[in-house]
């Protein structure tokens, strides 16, 4: 019997309602497992030190370590991990900055989950 490894995801957002919603949406997808849902970038880093993770979905503004600092750290220390930002911000200069930092995806919190 062949076993398939699930795609491991960590989600970080300091708004619990948003975090719970993202977890709910992603848990409906096959072959994907949310291994942790946390409220800060520092918590993500602790998980990455112990757990195999394929994707981090993170908010931009969070306490302790924000999403941009987290993106920089992941791209430097864990280059195989993909990073997707989720935010309310849609300003061109911010998106350009994220692209320069090699973000792998960007979703507006106002987007419909069907667009995922």
Globally, the shape reads globular
Q: Under CATH, the topology is which?
A: Rossmann fold
SS elements, strand count? 5
User: How much of the sequence is in beta strands?
Assistant: 15-25%
User: What is the radius of gyration computed over CA atoms, rounded to a whole number of angstroms?
Assistant: 14 Å
Mean pLDDT, rounded to whole units?
91
Oligomer: single chain
| The CATH superfamily title | Response regulator
Calculate the terminal CA-CA distance, rounded to whole Å: 31 Å
Give me the side-by-side strand order of the main sheet.
Answer: 2-1-3-4-5
Number of helices: 4
Task: Just give the CATH class.
Answer: Alpha Beta
Low-confidence stretches: none
Helix content: 25-40%
Order of helices and strands: EHEHEHEHE
For the largest beta-sheet, the strand count, sense and barrel status come to: 5 strands, parallel
The structure class reads alpha/beta
- Can you name the CATH architecture? 3-Layer(aba) Sandwich
Number of domains: 1
